[in-house]
Amino acid sequence: MLSRLQGIAPGKKKKLKVRVLRPINPNRIRHLENDIFEVNESGMVVATIKCVVVGDGAVGKTCLLISYTTNKFPSEYVPTVFDNYAVTVMIGDEPYTLGLFDTAGQEDYDRLRPLSYPQTDVFLVCFSVTSPASFENVREKWFPEVHHHCPGVPCLIVGTQTDLRDDPSVREKLAKQKMQPVRKEDGERMAKELGAVKYVECSALTQYKLKDVFDEAIVAALEPPPKKSSKKCTIL
């Protein structure tokens, strides 16, 4: 049965030509979790990849999504939560709809946030490289929460705001607290320890490796997992 992509307002669609970082064998593309399809303007049935972004508040999740979907950094008003957005991506000659879902990281939303998790194909678990506390919360809060509700769904760890990693004022502020920015190797180590698909980092401001984040998310959603696991989201 075909169903519409829920939660994405009409008109919030943008065509993007996606260059996947690693070739995907069409014969190995796995069955997507969400069973959601759209019918595009040409009458073609298009499968949807649902990507949910989680992480502490103020780590740049919304800017990440706005910069990717509009190709520019939001220099003025940044909403607390990004409107759900659908973009058309091409994997080889096959179109897919990439549904992007923002979430609020504040504790006030802990009960409501999981309502957006069912039928997710891939999670982006974000932290700011300028915030060691948000990095630790990847382990302490976000991975446990995601895996509790959606065991087996692939996750990428995303380090944001890399343009500020070497900023003197940022380093000075952290040094006063006997801390330093999170290093790339720290992110890679945590990804390995937690069983994340990969660690990637980017800057929404400069768009450094921004597209790579979503390319990797698409690959993670479409490639079959290395081991069989239960992939069903639950709300408890």
UniProtKB/TrEMBL annotation:
<dbReference type="InterPro" id="IPR037874">
    <property type="entry name" value="Cdc42"/>
</dbReference>
<dbReference type="GO" id="GO:0005938">
    <property type="term" value="C:cell cortex"/>
</dbReference>
<dbReference type="GO" id="GO:0005886">
    <property type="term" value="C:plasma membrane"/>
</dbReference>
<dbReference type="Pfam" id="PF00071">
    <property type="entry name" value="Ras"/>
</dbReference>
<keyword id="KW-0636">Prenylation</keyword>
<comment type="similarity">
    <text>Belongs to the small GTPase superfamily. Rho family. CDC42 subfamily.</text>
</comment>
<dbReference type="GO" id="GO:0030010">
    <property type="term" value="P:establishment of cell polarity"/>
</dbReference>
<dbReference type="GO" id="GO:0012505">
    <property type="term" value="C:endomembrane system"/>
</dbReference>
<dbReference type="InterPro" id="IPR003578">
    <property type="entry name" value="Small_GTPase_Rho"/>
</dbReference>
<dbReference type="InterPro" id="IPR027417">
    <property type="entry name" value="P-loop_NTPase"/>
</dbReference>
<dbReference type="GO" id="GO:0051301">
    <property type="term" value="P:cell division"/>
</dbReference>
<keyword id="KW-0488">Methylation</keyword>
<keyword id="KW-0472">Membrane</keyword>
<keyword id="KW-1003">Cell membrane</keyword>
<dbReference type="GO" id="GO:0003924">
    <property type="term" value="F:GTPase activity"/>
</dbReference>
<dbReference type="GO" id="GO:0030427">
    <property type="term" value="C:site of polarized growth"/>
</dbReference>
<keyword id="KW-0131">Cell cycle</keyword>
<dbReference type="GO" id="GO:0005525">
    <property type="term" value="F:GTP binding"/>
</dbReference>
<dbReference type="GO" id="GO:0007264">
    <property type="term" value="P:small GTPase-mediated signal transduction"/>
</dbReference>
<keyword id="KW-0342">GTP-binding</keyword>
<dbReference type="GO" id="GO:0051286">
    <property type="term" value="C:cell tip"/>
</dbReference>
<keyword id="KW-0449">Lipoprotein</keyword>
<dbReference type="InterPro" id="IPR005225">
    <property type="entry name" value="Small_GTP-bd"/>
</dbReference>
<keyword id="KW-0132">Cell division</keyword>
<keyword id="KW-0547">Nucleotide-binding</keyword>
<protein>
    <submittedName>
        <fullName>Cell division control protein 42 like protein</fullName>
    </submittedName>
</protein>
<dbReference type="InterPro" id="IPR001806">
    <property type="entry name" value="Small_GTPase"/>
</dbReference>
